[in-house]
Specification:
With 378 residues, this protein is of the alpha+beta class. The protein is 29% helix and 25% strand. β12 and β13 form a beta hairpin.
């Protein structure tokens, strides 16, 4: 009887990826494995799927099959054993673990190498430093590999021994129906090793807590929420695993004058009502020095003046933002009797000329209020 095409068996196209091949076999294994579906039909279908997977999951065998068909892999596929090449638990460990990022079905012995944890450091900066860029020194508490035992956790001159519970696998199996679940060995906590004579410095942990000083280069234009990653500056990994990363989280302090929105800066500029009425010039601060701001006559509170290129260039590039100055007309306080008389005389003079001439907004507002009251019929 001729064999079916391996791609057809798995329900795949010839350009299927490695991940798609694994997922297809997983689906068929769940459906036809003899441990779950007794009977000759299920066993034959599982064997066929397993043979197809053995060939297509191997790059060299797959290339030979694609070129020469079944003749190119004669004897390479297939598997021995009365039940189709291993139990359902073995398939779960070898294939399903690969698909979902597991460590496998307990076949690989030895201590499990683990990557160290990532760390976060909150760095507060003044607005000026965030805009211009700077270099700062930070002190970070972290776990580093113990120098006394070189990270093994065992006292110098001794070595860890194989865990008698898991026999160095780091995991133990628990049977639940036809599923065999794996969990970290409770005796060695997943390391596969037992330390009988622990290091005096790290007490068998292989890592010690230490404060380390790092130099962080902050690029110009960073803003609140930006992160700087320092590769390998996190916690040391377990069992000589790679260290994690350190993420420096930027927090820009509130500035007494400026507020930042993206690349633009905003500030409020107090203006006397005389300067607002007659016009004039003011010195306005920017992050690069003072500039002259010309206030036209008859300016009102809330008017925005844009100073182009006086904002911030984002750390991600692009054009430099602008500085937007919002004028706020300031009412004079602590007036003398003479000043009050002069202001009253000014008010009388303005009223004599009519509010519509000197205060157009006031009259339009009164007209709006009158219309509202008439419509509501208070």
């Amino acid at each position: 009887m001729s064999k079916r095409d391996y791609y057809e068996v798995l329900g795949l196209q010839k350009n299927a990826t490695e991940s798609e091949i694994k997922k297809a076999f997983k689906r068929l294994a769940m459906k036809f494995h003899p441990d779950r579906n007794p009977g000759p039909d299920a066993e034959d279908k599982f064997k066929e799927a397993k043979e197809a997977y053995d060939i297509l999951s191997d790059a060299q065998k797959r290339a030979a099959y694609d070129q020469f068909g079944h003749a190119g892999v004669e004897g390479a596929g297939g598997f021995g054993g009365a039940r189709g090449g291993g139990s359902f638990n073995d398939i779960f460990g070898d294939v399903f673990g690969d698909i979902f990022g597991g460590s496998g079905g307990g076949r690989s012995g030895g201590s499990r190498v683990q990557r160290g944890a990532d760390l976060r450091y909150n760095l507060e900066l003044d607005l000026e430093k965030a805009v211009q860029g700077t270099t700062v020194k930070i002190r970070v508490p972290t776990q580093v590999s113990c120098e006394a035992c070189e990270g093994s956790g065992a006292k110098k001159g001794s070595s860890p021994v194989t865990c008698p519970t898991c026999h160095g696998q780091g995991q133990v199996r628990m049977q639940q129906g036809f599923f065999s679940l794996q969990q970290a060995c409770p005796h060695c906590r997943g390391s596969g090793k037992i330390i009988k004579d622990p290091c005096n410095e790290c007490h068998g942990h292989g890592r010690v807590e230490k404060q380390k000083t790092l130099s962080v280069k902050v690029p110009a234009g960073v803003d609140n929420g930006d992160r700087i990653r320092l590769n390998g500056e996190g916690e040391a990994g377990a069992n000589s695993g790679p260290a994690g990363d350190l993420y420096v989280q930027i927090h820009v302090r509130e500035h007494p004058i400026f507020k930042r929105e993206g690349g633009d800066l905003y500030c409020e500029v107090p203006v006397s009502f005389v300067a607002a009425a007659l016009g004039g010039e003011l010195d306005v601060p920017t992050l690069s020095g003072k500039v002259k701001l010309k206030i036209p006559a008859e300016s009102q509170t809330g008017k925005l003046f844009r100073l182009r290129g006086k904002g911030v260039q984002s750390v991600r590039g692009g054009a430099v933002g602008d500085l937007l100055c919002r004028i706020v007309i300031e009412t004079p306080v602590n007036l003398t009797a003479r000043q009050k008389e002069l202001l009253q005389a000014f008010e009388d003079e303005v009223k004599g000329g009519g509010h519509s001439t000197h205060s157009p907004k006031h009259n339009s507002w009164l007209d709006g209020v009158k219309k509202f009251i008439d419509e509501m019929k208070f």
